[in-house]
Design goal:
Elements (H helix, E strand, L loop, with lengths): L1 E10 L5 H6 E2 L4 E2 L1 H15 L5 E13 L2 E4 L18 E3 L5 E3 L5 E3 L2 H14 L2 E2 L7 E2 L2 E12 L5 E10 L6 H4 L3 H25 L11 H5 L9 E7 L7 H15 L26
Parallel strand pairs: 1-12, 1-13
Antiparallel strand pairs: 2-3, 4-5, 4-8, 4-11, 6-7, 9-10, 11-12
Bound molecules: adenosine-5'-triphosphate.
The site of adenosine-5'-triphosphate has 14 residues, from helix 1 and strand 10.
Protein name: Kinesin-like protein
Keywords: ATP-binding, Microtubule, Motor protein, Nucleotide-binding
InterPro entries: Kinesin-like_fam, Kinesin_motor_CS, Kinesin_motor_dom, Kinesin_motor_dom_sf, P-loop_NTPase
């Protein structure tokens, strides 16, 4: 049985999505990723006394111009040309997702994850826009797979946590994008609108949900809707010059927040787990 969770950071370029998800390493300003991992490791340790043993596997990828890149691949650096391996996404009948050839690393502590995050941040596609000196030009997806087994009761549980730093939503004129940057911005905007199409199709209970319209939505298909839990942070910039973008982001947030897209069911039999959420939470 699987518990699947997605947490997104959405917003205009430079509004603090990466800061929200990663924090500032080394300055004790932790983001959602290190905080979640700390919590997970703490909880797994506290459950040891009840016979639970956990195995955790992390992977990190980015989707840049609709192409998957493995951020933990040996020898990977941001100067590498895109292309090379063609990573393909597969879902099995149980809703387990695999990406072919993607590096998956066993992690045993928060320190392990921190060093992987550092490695991944050096490999991420960044570029300079008028809005942000170090702008993320890709969607970043951190995935933690958790396998738990209880020696005394024989129970087994599985979970998947996806933490996603989306590429910045931005209007072409404002971002100052030309050439490659323009192509990137168009790809980003297209995939963000594919994400909202999927969310709203699930909310409306449409027969067809267009998961296949972008790599991001196809990758996350089993983790969106159904029994899964999804949370979205919307980051906005307080500057007056960003008012137009802020309004767009807030409009998007209020539409998303109005979505009730399913009932998140508790999937584990662990006596200690709480079941206080029966609604997918957006916004
Ligand atoms: N709450 C905050 N406190 C302190 N600094 C912040 C905060 N939010 C953002 N920053 C800083 O603002 C700058 C832009 O933030 P960040 O890179 O997180 O934006 P972003 O939304 O991820 O942008 P992009 O989409 O272009 O990648 C960074 O230098 C970041 O450290």
């Amino acid at each position: 049985m699987d518990t699947r969770v997605c947490i997104f950071a959405y917003g205009q370029t430079g509004s603090g999505k990466t800061y929200t998800m990663m924090g500032k390493p080394g300055r004790d300003q932790k983001g959602i990723i290190p905080r979640s991992l700390e919590q997970i490791f703490k909880t797994s340790q506290s459950l040891e006394s009840q016979g639970w043993k956990y195995c955790m596997q992390a992977s990190m990828l980015e989707i840049y111009n609709e192409t998957i890149r493995d951020l933990l691949a040996p020898g990977r650096s941001s100067s590498e040309m895109p292309g090379g391996k063609q990573y393909t996404i597969k879902h099995d009948s149980q809703g387990n997702t695999t990406v072919s050839d993607l590096t998956t690393t066993n992690v045993f502590s928060t320190a392990d994850v921190t060093s992987l995050l550092e490695k991944a941040s050096h490999s991420r596609s960044v570029g300079k826009t008028q809005m942000n000196e170090q702008s993320s030009r890709s969607h970043f997806v951190f995935t933690l797979k958790i396998f738990g087994s209880n020696e005394s009761t024989g129970q087994q549980v599985q979970g998947v946590l996806n933490l996603i730093d989306l590429a910045g939503s931005e209007r072409l004129t404002k971002s100052g994008a030309t050439g490659e940057r323009l192509k990137e911005t168009q790809a980003i905007n297209k995939s963000l609108s594919a994400l909202s199409d999927v969310i709203f199709a699930i909310a409306k209970n449409d027969d067809h949900v267009p998961f296949r319209n972008s790599k991001l939505t196809y990758l996350l298909q089993p983790c969106l809707g159904g029994d899964s839990k999804t949370l979205m942070f919307v980051n906005v910039s307080p500057e007056a010059s960003s008012a137009g973008e802020t309004l767009c982001s807030l409009r998007f947030a209020s539409r998303v927040n109005a979505c009730e897209i399913g009932v998140a069911r508790r999937q584990t039999q662990s006596k200690s787990s709480s079941d206080n959420s029966n609604r997918l939470s957006y916004g």
